Amino acid sequence: MAYTVRIAETGESFEAAADESILDAATRAGVRLPHECTFGGCGTCRIKVHEGAVDYEEFPMALTEEEHEDGYALACQAHCRADMLIEPAGKGLEFAPSFATTATVVKVEPLTPDINRLVLQLPEEVELDYRPGQYMNVVLPDGETRSFSMASALLPDGQIDFHVRRIAGGRFTETLLRELKPGDALHVELPLGTFCFHEEDWRPMILAATGTGLAPIKAILESLLDNDDCPPVTLYWGMRTEADLYMKDEIESWAGRLCEFRFVPVLSRPGEDWQGRRGYVQDAILEDHEDLSEYAFYLCGAPEMITQAKQLFVARGAELDYIYSDSFTFQHATALAA
């Protein structure tokens, strides 16, 4: 049996069989829906279901039960169970098409014992048009990819940089990255993803990052420095120890350059001398805010944090339409699948 799927904004429509995902049906029909990982790990293909119903063979990682009940679905995993009217959850933002190119390594430098900064030079003829918050894929020799978010709003002379955490047994982070030297070539695909600042919201922003999830958050906030239209900003950054706060001084220097900027580092394994917040970023946010109904949220990092934060914040009044997230699930899931 086939169902008709209509897209609210564009009026496009296509047929979807009961045994195929909405994304597969759209791709087959030549209808573009934003997507990346295709196995429910990243949330890029999130859609709003205005009419109809879906189900899943297995409930996807990047969707919460609350989102499902509120009418959201992941197109890469959802199967139609009725005629559908859907809307991609990107609020009509346009993103430059991605492309493949060969970048040159400028440097690899340590930020912590487990995190490196990787700086790449794009070819002179390449003009990169990306929204801060997006990411790139490094293409490995066998065609597999590893994903890393751009860590700056803009670097000079066509350079881009990334914060790369070493993953035990990781093919890129523990093997290839160690061998890279200036002048080496890397095959990359970019820009990718839909995580970015939503200027149209104009709500006070709460940004929560864990680990190197700080990278796209940093890029977003750098794009807002000295911007008179910047909404109030609070950044929570979760790390294990004080030594892991590799950008603490730079972040603190943003005070006065972002509207009402507040920076709250949160440590899960602090030393005895630590005078700051302890625990987890989602709990620190709840401790500081009784009512979350007026905020826009940007969440990036561990999937467990993102899933829990969404559930807790909605219970405290947050609206799902103003919760944006970038989970680092999909690159790990790809490695496991391989």
Structure description:
This protein has 338 residues and is of the alpha/beta class. The chain folds into three domains: 2-88, Ubiquitin-like (UB roll) (Roll), CATH 3.10.20.30; 99-194, Translation factors (Elongation Factor Tu (Ef-tu), domain 3), CATH 2.40.30; 199-334, Rossmann fold, CATH 3.40.50.80. Helix content is 19%, strand content 32%. It has helices spanning 22-28, 65-69, 172-179, 214-222, 248-252, 281-288, 303-315, 329-337, and strands at 2-7, 13-17, 46-51, 54-55, 72-74, 79-80, 84-88, 99-112, 115-121, 135-139, 145-149, 159-165, 185-192, 205-210, 233-239, 262-267, 277-278, 296-301, 323-327. Strands 11-10-13-8-9-12 form a six-stranded antiparallel sheet, sandwiched between helices. It has a six-stranded parallel sheet with strand order 17-16-15-14-18-19, with helices on both faces. The protein has a five-stranded mixed sheet with strand order 2-1-7-3-5. The longest helix has 13 residues, at 303-315. The two termini are 33 Å apart. 41% of the residues are buried.
